[in-house]
Write a structure and sequence with these properties.
This protein is an alpha/beta fold. The protein contains twelve helices and six strands. The strands form two sheets. The protein has a four-stranded mixed β-sheet with strand order 4-3-6-5. Strands 1-2 form a two-stranded parallel sheet.
């Protein structure tokens, strides 16, 4: 999770505000409009409601102070600006404290369609709307607490839970399958692939199966796990995760549903 980045984190001024340029405002607006048009019939209601609760708009890059205040008012969660990539231990520690770590830089125009590392658009537009849902926010906090308690030896398997829920989660709704994972809602290609379902597989969420499923970060996902409710999501961290990870390790991983990355 920690590697060299081609971007530099922005730092806030004395007033806590970040200085974004007119071009960055324009990039944010272009990304926002494109995704909101796409997600109207793809994202779950809780996500779309969260966008409204946070007051996200296309005219300017949102300030972390405003996002933090609105989250605190809804679920008691918060955010904290960090460099793009931080050590897993720090990542989990912040989650356990009810703070979602946010990269503060915005992608450059040459990366407008895809950026491998998380930027402000992925963080705020992708992650923060769902943190207005109490069950979801509880899950994220308790997930962080579990990760801190179990420690480094469990980190890799724990992040698979995060990957197939917070990053690439789908949920069954009365209107069909809808997306809520940040990696889907913030990416036009991922959203279309996940919702059209032509080159991927959908599996009901099962903790042991998730812990045995490898993934790659640089491709459209070939496998998505689907929950039935956010109450079910919250209940995941009430299971004996330590014992389930140990069982997953003993059984071994499923065969990858993707080709190995070229070295």
């Amino acid at each position: 999770m920690t590697k060299e980045s081609s971007y530099t984190a922005k730092l806030p001024g004395p007033d806590g505000l970040y200085d974004y340029t007119p071009d960055e405002d324009a990039i944010w607006g272009e990304l926002y409009r494109r995704q909101m048009k796409l997600l109207a019939d793809m994202a779950c209601r809780e996500y779309l409601d969260g966008v409204k609760m946070l007051g996200l708009k296309p005219d300017k890059v949102p300030q972390l102070l405003d996002v933090n205040r609105r989250l605190n008012e809804t679920t008691g969660f918060g955010v904290e600006g960090v460099p793009a990539l931080i050590p897993p231990s720090r990542f989990y520690e912040l989650l356990s404290q009810g703070k979602f770590p946010l990269a503060t830089f915005l992608r450059r125009r040459e990366h407008i369609d895809y950026i491998e590392e998380p930027d402000l658009f992925h963080e705020v537009f992708g992650h923060c709307p769902m943190l207005t849902n109490q069950s979801y926010a509880n899950f994220v906090r308790h997930f962080g607490e579990t990760a801190v308690r179990l420690g480094k030896g469990y980190s890799w398997h724990l992040f698979r839970i995060f990957w197939f829920t917070v990053e690439f989660g789908l949920i069954n709704t009365p209107h069909g399958r809808r997306c809520f994972g940040a990696g889907i809602v913030s990416s036009p290609s991922e959203a279309k692939a996940a919702m059209e379902g032509k080159a991927c597989e959908f599996r009901p969420f099962d903790l042991l199966s998730v812990l045995r499923t490898p993934y790659r970060i640089d491709i459209l996902q070939p496998i998505y796990y689907v929950i039935d409710s956010f109450a079910d999501l919250e209940a995941i961290v009430e299971q004996d995760i330590e014992a389930t990870i140990l069982k997953a390790k003993s059984l071994g991983d499923f065969a990858p549903a993707f080709e190995a990355k070229a070295s």
